[in-house]
């Protein structure tokens, strides 16, 4: 239904109402022509230019308050739940990404260049305080000690199984009459063996813990050599070699787990305060800046905005027009103005004055 169909010429209408209808139809026709005609790109560029130029006269603080900005962040970052359709889409895209990586010949080096590796390595080697803290943690942590003890026990049992089973097998031999001294000898031997085993475990566990802690305080030169050796071994491997160790369902579940973790994390007071504090820092930093400077600050220019508008605008307008939705949309946007009594009074006064 077009705007002409929606407006019925009625002879009973007053002259001002008839003129209002005529103006409405003409304005609808004008805007439709501007939006769909061959010069529509220039029209859109003109609009974006006007908006961009106007933005240099308004500051962020004039158009939005800190409370408004924080309310938006609260709603969409801290409260909004993803719909079932979006979660299903995440699962679908996760599987597609997985299948794509299986067909890719890209290597780790394609994702992380040697240049980027050098930058991160250089920064890591500067973190002396972190490495000292890590060293103290590895030396004093009961959990690390327990882990090293477990490793030591496992190593000894695997490498010296006879030593760890002899005492048990001998203790199960039947006792014979007149062999009291043998029993005591075996008991003594078993006790000494247990002590030896314990000392070996303790020594090996302590050795492992010391070596582990020692890795964190290697000299920069030794640590750099170690990390470079690992990088040289890893960087030429294909993404496929790593991705093939997983299944599509694993990738999908990773996405779901990350989302579930985020839902829980964002409810913690610490995370909420961090996010809202970050918003406040952003707002205070740009509060007195013009909107145009804010756009420049994040790297957007007028040309960028026009380019993206022209990228999506033609197809969207064409779809609205082909479905006969564009003209009714413009009509319904403008119609309330021409139905206003104030508008009709102005038209009536103008007609009378002429």
What are the main properties of this structure?
20 helices; mainly alpha; 3 domains
Task: Please tell me about this protein's structure.
The protein is elongated. It has 354 residues and is an all-alpha fold. It has 20 helices and no strands. It folds into 3 domains: 120 residues, no CATH class; 82 residues, no CATH class; 126 residues, no CATH class. Helix 2 crosses helix 20. The protein starts with a helix and ends with a helix. About 1% of the residues have low confidence. The longest helix is centred in the middle third of the chain and has 37 residues.
What topology does this entry show?
Layout: H1 3-6, H2 15-36, H3 40-54, H4 60-63, H5 66-79, H6 84-103, H7 108-111, H8 114-126, H9 128-140, H10 142-159, H11 161-171, H12 180-216, H13 220-234, H14 239-243, H15 248-265, H16 269-286, H17 291-297, H18 302-322, H19 326-339, H20 341-353
């Amino acid at each position: 239904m077009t705007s002409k169909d929606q407006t019925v010429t009625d002879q009973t209408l007053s002259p001002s109402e008839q003129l209002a209808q005529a103006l409405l139809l003409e304005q609808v026709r004008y805007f439709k022509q501007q939006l769909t005609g061959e010069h529509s790109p220039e029209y859109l560029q003109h609009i974006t230019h006007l908006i961009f130029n106007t933005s240099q006269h308004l500051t962020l603080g004039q158009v939005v308050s800190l409370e408004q900005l924080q309310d938006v962040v609260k709603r969409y970052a801290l409260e909004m739940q993803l719909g079932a359709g979006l979660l299903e889409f995440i699962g679908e895209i996760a599987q597609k990404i997985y299948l794509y990586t299986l067909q890719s010949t890209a290597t780790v080096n394609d994702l992380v260049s040697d240049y980027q590796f050098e930058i991160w390595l250089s920064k890591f080697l500067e973190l002396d305080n972190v490495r000292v803290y890590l060293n103290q943690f590895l030396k004093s942590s009961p959990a690390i000690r327990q882990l090293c003890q477990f490793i030591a026990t496992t190593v000894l049992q695997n490498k010296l199984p006879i030593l760890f089973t002899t005492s048990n097998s001998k203790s199960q031999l039947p006792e014979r009459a007149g062999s009291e001294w043998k029993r005591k000898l075996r008991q003594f031997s078993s006790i000494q063996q247990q002590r030896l085993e314990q000392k070996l475990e303790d020594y090996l566990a302590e050795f492992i813990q010391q070596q582990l802690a020692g890795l964190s305080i290697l000299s920069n030169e030794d640590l750099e050599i170690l990390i470079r050796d690992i990088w040289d071994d890893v960087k030429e491997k294909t993404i496929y070699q790593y991705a093939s160790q997983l299944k599509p369902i694993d990738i999908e579940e990773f996405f779901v787990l990350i989302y579930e973790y985020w839902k829980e994390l964002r409810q913690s007071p610490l995370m909420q305060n961090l996010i809202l504090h970050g918003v406040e820092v952003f707002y205070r930093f740009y509060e007195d800046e013009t909107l145009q400077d804010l756009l420049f600050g994040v790297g957007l220019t007028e040309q960028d905005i026009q380019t993206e508008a022209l990228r999506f605008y033609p197809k969207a307008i064409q779809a609205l027009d082909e479905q006969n939705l564009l003209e009714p949309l413009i009509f319904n946007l403008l119609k309330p103005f021409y139905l206003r009594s104030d508008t009709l009074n102005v038209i009536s006064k103008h007609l009378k004055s002429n």
